Automatic annotation (TrEMBL):
Domain Peptidase M16 N-terminal residue range list: 52-199
Function summary: Catalytic subunit of the essential mitochondrial processing protease (MPP), which cleaves the mitochondrial sequence off newly imported precursors proteins. Preferentially, cleaves after an arginine at position P2.
Recorded GO MF terms: metalloendopeptidase activity
Names of required cofactors: Zn(2+)
Enzyme class: hydrolase
Family matches, as InterPro entries: Metalloenz_LuxS/M16, MPP/UQCRC_Complex, Pept_M16_N, Pept_M16_Zn_BS, Peptidase_M16_C
Species, as recorded: Sporothrix eucalyptigena
UniProt entry keywords in alphabetical sequence: Hydrolase, Metal-binding, Metalloprotease, Mitochondrion, Protease, Zinc
PANTHER family: GH01077P (PTHR11851:SF149), METALLOPROTEASE (PTHR11851)
Limits of the Peptidase M16 C-terminal domain: 205-392
Family listed: Belongs to the peptidase M16 family.
Protein name, UniProt field: mitochondrial processing peptidase
Taxonomic lineage from the root: Eukaryota, Fungi, Dikarya, Ascomycota, Pezizomycotina
């Protein structure tokens, strides 16, 4: 009632202005965007070389803090492959300040989440908690990274856990195919090794290899302490100075370090693991892609989105957007396919992952997939580029939902490129990509380029490498 009376009085006031008072006509104004410094990513480098980066959201009640380390399986040797992942498992098994039970109880009492993961180029330890508990979480992360006990009993227990994990990974066909793809594309190079390492290494890794890996790689110049959410930048810098000043400033120039920083060479080749007990053919085909720093990074993602994805099991299978998905569905060539653009610090893999139970039509499936790649070099429409750009922008923005996702984005960008592009800056870069840019990218990176092939399962009818390589330079 009060609001109705207020609206009535407002209307009456506008209709009958006081004598001598002239009111300007009402006009609808445009909102003015305000760029608040608090919403930008801030970065500070400490004296020992540790970088502290934050994205402060003043209204967030929780925060994610974590340490991104420029060291993963790529920083290992052939003999120590698997060490980085082994260390990740041991991180929560007790330190010189906290037993495993005390560590678990402390996290449980905070209601926080503590986790870690290892990739080919990074190792990450992070925690999510209420803002008031961030100092305690930073203390725990610093303790884990600098004071892990690495007890022999814990090493033996985790050895069995990792061996079981390795067995589970071997049952995931997609993981197996992509591990083989890396192994053949980057043969005899650190980037070609798996993250878990071979079973032989897992069985033989000792405390010596683990402590050496920490000493050689867990150094301030290769770490970024990230905060996202309700943690102010100045506070996290203070916590970093309190907890991480004893980190070694730089990594020793070991053979493994120098090898990990050497540019990886892409090798056109194939590997096939035939197993007729698997009812499908699982095939990954890739050209050399782009690095995180490459000027073509976002163009490669747009090109990937144009090729698209497909899953026959989905209700919208006939209408999944890309030309290739329509052709594959109409002719029932595949169960699914997924285009990908995987980037590393100096190179990448751009390609497609195909799964099909139409075992006598695998040549058709591969032919039409590579024919679509060739089409990108000569005939890309504005409509499909705009669709791909819209999908890419939406996926990037949706992937930044939550403080952990934002922290992941900050850590990954700063550890690989040294800076972070904001979502707005990324949108503007993507908006400026045209069909000419996509065709130029395809001409340089796809047309008549060597390919790496990894095939697992019922792959007897996959044609030989030379025949498939020939499809990379088709004339329409």
């Amino acid at each position: 009632m009060a609001s109705r009376r207020l609206a009535l009085n407002l209307r009456q006031g506008l209709k009958a202005p006081r004598a001598g008072l002239s009111l300007p006509p009402l006009r609808r104004g445009l909102a003015t965007p305000v760029a608040s410094p608090a919403l930008k990513t801030q970065s500070t480098t400490l004296k020992n070389g540790l970088t502290v980066a934050t994205h402060y959201s003043p209204y967030a009640s929780t925060s994610t803090v974590g340490v991104w380390i420029d060291a993963g399986s790529r920083a290992e040797t052939e003999e120590t492959n698997g060490t980085a992942h082994f260390l990740e498992h041991l991180a929560f098994k007790g330190t010189t300040k906290r037993t495993q039970h005390q560590l678990e109880l402390e996290i449980e009492n905070l209601g926080a989440h503590l986790n870690a993961y290892t990739s080919r180029e990074n190792t990450v330890y992070f925690a999510k908690s209420l803002n008031d508990d961030v100092p305690q979480c930073v203390d725990i992360l610093a303790d884990i990274l600098q004071n892990s006990k690495l007890e022999e009993s814990a090493i033996e227990r985790e050895r069995d856990v990792i061996l079981r994990e390795s067995e589970e990974v071997e049952k995931q066909l997609e993981e197996v195919v992509f591990d083989h793809l890396h192994a053949t594309a980057f043969q005899q190079q650190p980037l070609g090794r798996t993250i878990l390492g071979p079973r032989k290494n897992i069985q033989e890794i000792t405390r010596t290899e683990l402590t050496n890996y920490i000493k050689n790689n867990y150094t301030a110049d290769r770490m970024v302490l990230v905060g996202a959410g309700g943690i102010p930048h100045e506070q996290l810098v203070e916590l970093a100075e309190k907890n991480f000043t004893n980190l070694p400033a730089s990594s020793p120039q070991t053979g493994a370090f120098l090898q990990s920083k050497k540019r990886s060479d892409f090798i056109g080749s194939d590997v096939r693991i035939r197993d007729d007990t698997i009812p499908t053919a699982n095939i990954a085909i890739a050209v050399e892609g782009v690095s995180w720093n490459d000027d073509d990074y976002f163009t490669a993602l747009v090109a990937q989105a144009i090729v698209g994805n497909y899953d026959k099991a989905l209700g919208n299978a006939p209408h999944q957007g890309s030309k290739l998905s329509g052709l594959v569905h109409k002719n029932d060539l595949a169960n699914s396919f997924m285009s990908f653009s995987t980037s590393y610090s100096d190179t990448g893999l751009w390609g497609i992952y195909l799964v099909s139970d139409q075992l006598t039509r695998l040549d058709d499936l591969i032919h039409f997939a590579l024919r679509e790649w060739s089409r990108l070099s000569v005939n890309v429409t504005q409509a499909e580029v705009e669709r791909a750009k819209a999908q890419l922008k939406a996926s990037i923005l949706l992937s930044l939902d939550g403080t952990t996702a934002v922290a992941e984005d900050i850590g990954r960008q700063i550890i690989t490129t040294g800076t972070r592009l904001s979502p707005g800056e990324i949108e503007r870069v993507i908006d400026n990509i045209t069909e000419k840019d996509v065709m130029d990218f395809a001409n340089r990176k796809l047309w008549d380029q060597d390919i790496a092939i990894s095939a697992v399962g019922s792959v007897e009818d996959v044609f030989d490498y030379a025949r498939i390589r020939g499809d990379m330079s088709r004339n329409f």
